[in-house]
Structures are given as C-alpha cells and as structure tokens.
Amino acid sequence: DLTKESFKQIKATDDDVQAFLTLNEEAALKRAAEIDKNGIAEDQLLAGIPLAVKDNIVTKGLRTTAASKILGNFTPVYDATVIEKMNQAGFINVGKTNMDEFAMGSSTENSGFKKTKNPWDLTRVPGGSSGGSAAAVAAGDVLAAFGTDTGGSIRQPASFNGIVGMKPTYGRVSRWGIIAFGSSFDQVGWLSNNVKDNAILMQAISGLDKHDMTSANQEVPNWAANLDKASVKGLKIAVPEEYTSDAIDDDVREVIQAALKHFESLGATVDTVSLPHTKYGVSAYYILASSEASSNLQRYDGIRYGFRADDVKNLDDVYVRTRTEGFGDEVKRRIMLGTFSLSAGFYDAYFNKAAKVRRLIADDFNKVFKDYDVILGATDASTAFKIGDKVTDPTKMYLNDALTIPVNMAGLPAMSLPAGFSKKDGMPVGLQIIGKPFDEQTVYDAGYVFE
Ligand code: GLN
C-alpha cells in the first residue's frame, strides 16, 4: 500500500515538479508484493519503505544517467554498495531522480533532460545538484531520497525545499558505484522530512567497504537511538562571522538569528568566531573539483559506456563527436578548467595553490573545533532563486555555494535543516550545523531540538 501511495503521489505531482528521470514502478510493486507475501526478516529495518535514488548512483538493471546524454542509454550491471545495503534492509526503489549533469550545478537546470521545479513555488529552482531528490521529498512522493554532496548538493537543496539534508563525514559512506565527480569531496547522504528518519537511513548505508579504499574503518553508531535533545544544554556553539555577514540576505539572517536564540534558551552557549579563509573556498574548490572531474570523466569515450555519436570517420572522431554531442556546456566548462589547471605549465600556479588553500580552510575548522562542539550558520545566503536567474552566469551560480563548499574541503559532517521561513518571499530557510569528523551524533542531536 505504501508503494502504491508513493506512485499515486508521484502521478499527482510530477507533471508539475518533474523530479524523476526514470520510474521503477513495475519492479517496485513486484518487490512490495513479495515483501507482503514473505514477511520481513528481523534485520530488515526498512522493509517495504519506498524511497528515491539520485541518478548518479548505479542501480543494477535500472537506467542510470547522472542526467547526462552521454549515459542516456546506460543500464548498470551492478548495484552501488549503498543500494546493496538498502536492498538488504528491504527498501523499495521507486525511481531515479533528476540532477545537474554529473552533479555539476546548484539548481538542477544543468540536467541534460529536464528542469525540476521547487514544489513550494514552481517558478523557483529546487537547488542542486540533488534537486530532483529534494523536490521528490518536499512534494510528498517519498519519505526520503538519496543525494550526493561534493560542494553542497545535499544541503543546499534541503535548504531550498524546507527539508533535512545530511552530508556525513568523508569516508563514512562507501562511494563504490557512485558516478565520480570530485572523488576527494564526494559523499552520499540522505534528504528526508526529519532528523530521526535521516539518522536511521544513514546508519543503514554507513561503514567500511572493501570496494572503496577511502571508506573509513569507524564504528557506526545507532544515531537514531542515541538522539538526545537534552545534550544541547551546555553545547558550545561557534558562529563564524563569515556565515552571518552582509553577504547573507537579511531575511535569511533573521531566521538564523532566531534559531541561535532558541539554542541559547535551551542552555547552549553561542560565540562568534572567524573562519578567515572562507572567502577563498569557492575559487579553490572550482579548481580542485574540476581537476578531479576532468580526470574522472575521461572514461566517457563513446567506447565503454552509453552513447556513441553516429557516422564517425575514425577513432579520434568517435571521441570528439561523442563528447561534443554527449556532454552539456557546464560539464565541458569544468573539463576545460580542470585540464588547464592540471597542465604542466599551470599546475603550480593553480592546482597546487588551490590544494594549499584547502589545507588552510581545514585548519580554520580544526582551530575552532578545539574549543567548540558544533559550528552553526546559514546553509545558503538566499532562499530558492527563480528559474533562469543564474544559469546564464556561471560565476554567480558558483558563488551560491560559498557556505557549503568549505565543509567538503575539510571532509566534515554537516546537515541543513528547516529553521523557518523568509519574511520576504515565504520560502524555507535552512540552518547549517557542522560537526567534528565522525561526530554525526552531535550534529543530529543539535538538529533534533527543532522537532
Ligand atoms: N554546486 C557545486 C558544483 O557545482 C556543488 C555540487 C555538488 O555538491 N555536487 O560543483
């Protein structure tokens, strides 16, 4: 019944919202019927729960495109580790959600296939790159959806859609079977309606995986069972001035200030601190992430996967025509930027310098975490913007992620949760809670006080 309800809601909303690229209706209903018939094993905590999957996570036998034409007809022969784990837990995959092509973007307008709308206001973007997942949750299609976050792609759409989005510590979740963008930044996580659901689902996908050598050998706590509102009493909160400055819209700042007051009223202390290298984050990130992307995307050559251009003359022509026709503008822009930054004559001036900035940004966080338990601020400087507002100006779009990118540079866990609504446009505003490495518990606990 749950699965049927989910498809009913998708049919009622998705003509407008356009959150999904591929629906998995037949297989999902079949699996739900099997679970009804055979019953649930004791460890199948999520048996029969319909959820959605971002389309850069490979699913065996189900088309996986990363919203790129170059993978338009790609059907994987294996499941990502996170899907395998969720299958064991008994979940039902209702379908694959729209995103910015290869997760490059902040509005889902860079999808090679369609534009997803924000369910709160169809003239606005749902954010990105996990915009389809966020919109599917906000539209009530599913209770939660998978996202990935390289520079903010779980937290910013969560903020724009008034839902919870958690990017765990780098290494917490296996990246095996995630279509790679910036491998030293990418992490999988969940977009959900509330903190508790998020914690339950995160536990189900976390842990060491022999297929991903960057996955961490760290114990996975039962975050949901440990959730504790009382632990906010005495919590030491740091608020970076860079996260509440004039660069943040007034209507957003007002909601964040009210949230900080709420924490104080519960017995937390709130101090202003500085993360001085924040202002270099966006520039350094676009060099590093694009460099990694230019390397990761070499594999789309027209031979190994998906799409191949027609009427080609020779092998070079296969590569050039396939990539020219298969990739969108933003992806090409990143490949060129990344290739340039890594090239022999410019490596020291760009890639190497950006890597040093990354270290400084991580050190900023380390210093603050010597004295504080969590760092709080806005997730995004604005509420969801209008479709078309930024897509023609890449720098404007890039600057949108100034408050989420530093967290990926340092590999920290961070969550966005709905903290209120803008007085200006009535749209939801997200509060960002950043934690110490592998201390997802404190992040979840702090967010839990809003429920
Ligand atoms: N918006 C950022 C970018 O375009 C981050 C995207 C992401 O986290 N996948 O790279």
Note down, in words, how this protein is organized:
The strands form two sheets. Strands 4-6-5-10-11-9-7-8 form an eight-stranded mixed β-sheet. Strands 1-3-2 form a three-stranded mixed β-sheet. By secondary structure, the protein is of the alpha/beta class. 53% of the residues are buried. It starts with a helix and ends with a helix. It has a domain at 2-226: Amidase signature (AS) enzymes. The protein has helices spanning 2-17, 25-38, 81-89, 131-138, 155-161, 195-205, 223-226, 250-265, 281-296, 315-326, 329-342, 348-371, 394-399, 405-410, 440-448; strands at residues 20-23, 50-54, 92-97, 144-149, 164-167, 187-192, 236-240, 269-273, 374-378, 414-421, 428-434. The chain contains 15 helices and eleven strands. The mean pLDDT is 96. α9 (281-296) packs across α12. It is an enzyme of class 6 (ligase). Keywords: ATP-binding, Ligase, Nucleotide-binding, Protein biosynthesis. InterPro entries: Amidase, Amidase_CS, Amidase_dom, AS_sf, GatA.
Q: How are the elements arranged and paired?
A:
Elements: H1 2-17, E1 20-23, H2 25-38, E2 50-54, H3 81-89, E3 92-97, H4 131-138, E4 144-149, H5 155-161, E5 164-167, E6 187-192, H6 195-205, H7 223-226, E7 236-240, H8 250-265, E8 269-273, H9 281-296, H10 315-326, H11 329-342, H12 348-371, E9 374-378, H13 394-399, H14 405-410, E10 414-421, E11 428-434, H15 440-448
Parallel strand pairs: 2-3, 7-8, 7-9
Antiparallel strand pairs: 1-3, 4-6, 5-6, 5-10, 9-11, 10-11
Helix pairs in contact: 4-5, 9-11, 9-12
Glutamine binds at residues 103-106, 129, 149-153, 181, 289, 401.
